[in-house]
Each structure stands twice: as C-alpha cells, then as structure tokens.
Specification:
This protein is α/β, with parallel strands linked by helices. About 35% of the residues lie in helices and about 20% in strands. The strands form four sheets. Strands 4-1-5-6-7 form a five-stranded parallel β-sheet, with helices on both faces. The protein has a three-stranded mixed β-sheet with strand order 8-9-10. Strands 2-3 form a two-stranded antiparallel sheet.
Length: about 325
C-alpha cells in the first residue's frame, strides 16, 4: 500500500511546526507561473518517511490546476516516482465570483459590493466555468478531487452550499467548507475525513504526455487539454530553439510553461474558462540542469515580481553615518 501523498492547489529546507503541533517542511520556493511551483522532492520524501505507513503528507502546488498542479504531475511526479492519492483543490467564493463575471479588483481599493454581498449568479457562473475546468484538469491525471472551500466571513450559507453542490456535480469526489483560519484544526475535520476517504479509493494516475513525444506536441497537448486553447502559434524564434534542443538531445525533457496565473489562457483579463483562442509561444528556453524545457507564453516575463522601477534605485549608503537608506 503506497504512502498517502496529497496535492494541494509552502514555499527555502526549513523545518517548522504549526500552532497545533503539525510538523512542516518548507523547502524551495519557485513560482508556478514561471517555474514548476512546487516544494522539493527531498522535503516530500522526508515527510513521507516520518509520517509512517498510514500517515498523510500534504504538499503544495502553486496557483491553480492549470500551472502548479499540471507541473507537479508532469514534472515532479515524473522525476520523483511518487504518485499522489488525492488532489485537494482550494477555492474561495470571492475568486469564483470574479470568474463568474464579477468586477475588476484593484489592490488597495475597497472590494466592490459584489464580493461582499450575496450573489448566487456570480458564484454559479464561476463554478460552472472555472471550478468545473479545474476539476476536469485534475481528473485527466486519474486522481480523485476533493474541493476545499476556504470560508470568508462575508460568505453566506447559500453561496457555500451552492459551491459544494456544483463541485460535486462537476465530478469532485466531495466538496466541503473549511473554517481552519477561524477555528484551527477543528475547522477542517470534515475536509480531513473526506480526504481520508478519497485516499482509500483506487486511483489511476497517468501523465498527460509521454516523455518521447515531440516538444511541439507536448506544448500543444498542455495548451489544448489543460488551458482549453484551439492550438498553439510558435514564433520563428521558438521553432528555431526547439529544433536546436532536439539536435542537442533534449527533446525528451518535460515542459514547464511560463504563463500568467491570472487566467487559464495567456490573457490575464480573460476569466472563467476561455475557449476559441490560440496560445502564442514567443520563445522556448531550456533549463537543462533543472531538467525541463520552458516555453514563454505571450508576454509573460520570467521576472514578474519586479516593479517597473526596481527598488534598488532608491537604496543608498550614507557615507557620513554609514547607514543604508531606502530599504523601507
């Protein structure tokens, strides 16, 4: 019987412990939009050894099922040989409202009333589009899905019930509200029980593509089966790079797409589950040491966390006091 290995959709090896005594390994912190978005295989294997035969390990994949989870399965599981028993797909009412057609949210500005007041129409729209697609992505890998709905104080019972209902209708093994932020461990007992039950069921794990599939076809497979694209559009530079990598013998490496996390597509403003688009691949690069090929989708930058004007412009050293200024 395999050790229970769960995937949720943190990040340096740090050993830590939660406020309720649960051990935590924090090792590596790549973002899933530009890298693989997962903690290290070493951390997972250490945790699996420590929990014992009947224990459970929860390992995080960054962002949504379209990037962090897809890379967990196709890159990390391929490298480690580990096979997860359950996918825990995390959702919120607010996010589903946005995917259901809710207004734009700006950092630092008050939330629009649609995200605070009950709005079952927006919730249903987000569930029937984005949540449904996220569940379907996970199911392609043959692993049961449990939806964990993180509850906010502004969520109404009707909204919570609607999310759980639609998630089950869309194929989730189960869907449950989680109140661990407010109540600690006891706020997620029902989730733990559902996960344990799902883990006891047989799974049929499978990769989305074979290693020996041509690089272009691997990219196309991810674009069509995960993102929902009609096809891909390779730039001349991207095609030239692919030809070179094939000549160098790197054609069997897995694919690590550099794509926005704000949409299933390459267009950050397109919420829900976009269709009818062609995914542009402007460049393809190789991280041979890390063991993957990474295409750059659309205008995606490989340093997306940097502001337009880097902070180092404002950092200086006062020669009189030898104090550093501009750090904060």
């Amino acid at each position: 019987m395999p050790l229970k290995h769960l995937l949720t959709c943190a990040y340096c090896l740090d050993k830590d412990i939660t406020s309720q005594g649960t051990p935590v390994f924090v090792h590596a912190g790549p973002f899933a939009n530009i890298a693989h978005g997962n903690s290290s295989v070493l951390a997972d294997k250490l945790a699996l050894k420590l929990v014992g035969r009947d224990g459970f390990v929860v390992t995080e994949a960054g962002f949504g099922a379209d990037i962090g989870m897809e890379k967990f399965f196709n890159i990390k599981c391929r490298a480690s040989g580990l096979r997860p028993n359950v996918v825990v797909l995390v959702a919120t009412v607010r996010a589903l409202k946005m995917h259901g057609g809710g207004p734009h949210v700006s950092a630092g500005s008050p939330l629009p009333r649609e995200y605070i007041d009950e709005n079952l129409s927006l919730v249903a729209g987000g569930c029937q589009s984005n949540l449904k697609k996220q569940i379907q992505i996970a199911q392609q890998f043959g692993v049961p899905v449990v939806v964990a709905l993180n509850v906010f104080k502004t969520d109404t019972q009707a909204e919570i019930d609607l999310v759980c209902q639609i998630a089950r209708e869309c194929g989730a093994f189960d869907a449950l509200p989680c109140n661990h932020w407010a109540q600690g461990g006891r706020g997620s007992v029902a989730l733990a029980q559902a996960v344990k039950q799902a883990a006891s069921k047989p799974s049929n794990f499978q990769f989305l593509y074979h290693s020996e599939m041509p690089i272009v076809e691997k990219i196309r497979t991810i674009a069509q089966r995960v993102y929902g694209a009609d096809d891909i559009d390779l730039s001349l530079e991207a095609q030239t790079k692919i030809d070179y990598y094939n000549q160098q013998g790197y054609g069997s490496l897995p694919i690590c797409m550099a794509k926005t996390h704000l949409s299933l597509s390459h267009m950050p403003d397109k919420k829900g589950a976009p269709t009818g688009f062609v995914l542009p691949i402007r460049d393809v690069r190789a991280s041979v040491g890390a063991g993957f090929i990474y295409p750059l989708v659309g205008t995606m930058s490989t340093m997306p966390g940097l502001p337009t004007r880097p902070c180092f412009y404002d950092i200086d050293l006062d020669p009189a006091t030898e104090e550093i200024t501009g750090l904060f």
